[in-house]
Amino acid sequence: MEVKLTVIPDDTTANDRESDWGTELVIRPASTSYAALGIFDSIKPFRARLKEILEPTCSTIQHWDNTVEMLSKREEIIGCLNKIFTEFKDYQKPFLLHPIWKTLGKSPIIDKGNAYDIFVWSDFAICRTFIDCASRERDVGKVTRLYRSTLRLARILYELTQTDKVNIHNIYTQMAFNLQTDKEFALNGKMTRRFMNHPRRYNPIMKLSSITNVIMNGGHKELSPERRFDQSLYYTAQELFKDDA
Fold it and tell me: What is residue 196's DSSP assignment?
């Protein structure tokens, strides 16, 4: 399973009340392609039903890389995926391990109380994020990253129902829609908190001191974190600007 380690709160939720804090999640193209293949593998025995859901919409598409055509199919494609995800929700499986650590607001200081936890996303759940968020976009006039992911998922599943084969590389290359291809999409904390809707999101189960059971035998002396100017400045600013206090 893939691992995504992120901090809470992110910049978009740091000024909200603590119970509304959320964490950013950045997803790469490989993740969505693996999730799509895993979903099809789980529901492959129901290929006929999957084809029945997708074919009326997908078989009419002439050019999957045409923005105008894809925008006109938005409601139909999202509707197809919603039906699939509802009917086959019992076939989802763990896909992404998502450890979080909690800081004191936007500062780099780890919370002195409960600081660490882990969430597990299923393959259905990680796809549910971009499908749901894309469905809430209105009058965008272009194919966004979230809707692009939705389209790619629909096409992968549809092509697999036809021939049991799919050219992932071609789909991801052809369906770029003038967006950068190194990142599939990013969800900010205001988005992820809807899916990570549990008190352990903002009140993690493990305390700060528990890290001593993980890093042992002087291992902390070997840590060599990346040095960022803004982070170094943060730790020295109090002394540098003490006259401005």
Answer: S
